[in-house]
Amino acid sequence: xxxxxxxGREPPVGASPRARGAMATAQATKNTITLKGSTAIVxxxxxxxxxxxxxxxxxxxxxxxxxxxxxxxxxxVTTDDGLKTYLVSVLQQINDWMMTKALQKLVLVVTAVGSxxxxxxWVFDVEQEGVETADGKLVDAKDGSTIKPAKSEKEITGEISxxxxxxxxxxxxxxxxxxxxxxxxxxxxxxxxxxxxxxxxSDARNIANGAEQVKLRSFSTAVHKVEGMVSYxxxxx
Length: 237
Fold this sequence. Notes:
By secondary structure, this protein is α+β, with helices and mostly antiparallel strands.
């Protein structure tokens, strides 16, 4: 279906945080990950991935991040109250769209503050791989009959860890951001999905005059598959 491109509005500077909890923690059964459990895993990944990108690309000062252990790695997570509030709000809506199978992709756009030029697009495509049957089995989303093998949390964590490592290593190939930058989060959803007032329609915010692309690793929960890619403006004109 045709996608609606939506932009999460960042709260005003100094907005008091409404968030009281940490990111959602996935609840998975030993045998089969449910839609709810898979959605929690993917949403939590998005939260840590966005934090990692904002830190690695210097969008927010390094002193506004703290280290936490996740995926067997030392993850950097923001301590900025306004940013925390914004991310909690966005991730809750992402969770809601995924529960209704409406989310197609999440895109983090890095934009130069002065020129408004789009410099980077971090794209995470979401594919529905498996669906639950009435008797609790997980079958292939395309043919509706083939039973999908379960994946352990250890397997999923290993795949997610590999993507996070790639994001961390991105500074070795991405051009230096030589001016102050800001970011937006765009969600591509089914055209008929419900849009809350906190979100607004957006264009795709593509990089002008072509872009270099680097494909990131993917991970699968057996319910969802997430594939990553970063495109960036080359300094070579």
